[in-house]
Amino acid sequence: MKLIEVKNYEHMCELAASYISDKVRANPNITLGLATGGTPLGTYKKLIEDYKHGKTSYKQVVSFNLDEYIGLTGQSPNSYRYYMNDNFFDHIDIDQDNTFVPNGIATDLDQECKNYEEQIRAKGEIDLQLLGIGSNGHIGFNEPGASFESYTHVVELTESTREANSIYFERMEDVPKKAITMGIASIMKSKEILLLVSGEHKHDSLAKLLTGDLTEQFPASILKQHPSVTIIADAAAIGNLNIKEVMYD
Ligand code: PGA
């Protein structure tokens, strides 16, 4: 794993956006794995700015999102389909037919999971997967205890995750209890991973990732075994961790 330390959230977003847009320009047919949540929001904003300056086109880009709540339609402002359209896709020239988000209202959810994996295979696998990390070490919605062998599947969300995400909902009881998520094995198949970590509240999970053991109780620990992971973390997340600084090249 390569760790890049940046000053703050703003710098993390700038660096992440230039990292991603460089890759898109180098490979216009790239398949991106995308994430939702608070962490990547600023990165999407910077990518939109870059697009508006005419620097990068997404016409031939394919994207797969990590996860989606079960029971929410794409029109629901809390669905991840809505988040992606609103915060990114609607502002760039990507072909919406090439943007994949699991269908959280599929009548046959198991079939939906299988189809999703097949679609990823059919597009030649994910070239660059953008990731955040949960305070409990989750990646996507793979909560502690998730099998390292898992592919796209249905999960029950933990109370800590529901609580963390409840800030986006009017009432706690509106937060879905289940989701579809790409599995750990699906994530590990991506050719390259870019993990963003920002804020003091992520310090413990970053510390555990960098210094802890490989264990299914801390899903992100699997990333140690991936051949190409870049972490961009800000000073608040790094805190007093004694890390060897690696510069962006
Ligand atoms: P956050 O979520 O970006 O909203 O902190 C990250 C995650 O839970 O993976």
Q: What does the secondary structure layout of this molecule look like, with pairings?
A:
Elements: E1 2-6, H1 9-26, E2 31-34, H2 41-52, E3 62-65, E4 67-69, H3 80-87, E5 99-100, H4 109-122, E6 128-131, E7 153-156, H5 159-165, E8 178-181, H6 184-188, E9 192-197, H7 203-211, E10 229-234, H8 235-238
Parallel strand pairs: 1-10, 2-3, 2-6, 3-5, 6-9, 9-10
Antiparallel strand pairs: 4-8, 7-8
Bound molecules: 2-phosphoglycolic acid.
Task: Briefly characterize the structure.
With 249 residues, the protein is an alpha/beta fold. It has eight helices and ten strands.
Can you characterise this structure?
With 249 residues, the chain is α/β, with parallel strands linked by helices. Helices cover 31% and strands 17% of the residues. It is built from 8 helices and 10 strands. It has helices at 9-26, 41-52, 80-87, 109-122, 159-165, 184-188, 203-211, 235-238; strands spanning 2-6, 31-34, 62-65, 67-69, 99-100, 128-131, 153-156, 178-181, 192-197, 229-234. The protein has a 7-stranded parallel beta sheet with strand order 1-10-9-6-2-3-5. A 3-stranded antiparallel beta sheet has the order 4-8-7, with helices on one face. The model has no long low-confidence stretch (mean pLDDT 95). 2-phosphoglycolic acid (PGA) is lined by residues 37-39, 132-134, 138. The site of 2-phosphoglycolic acid has 7 residues, from loops.
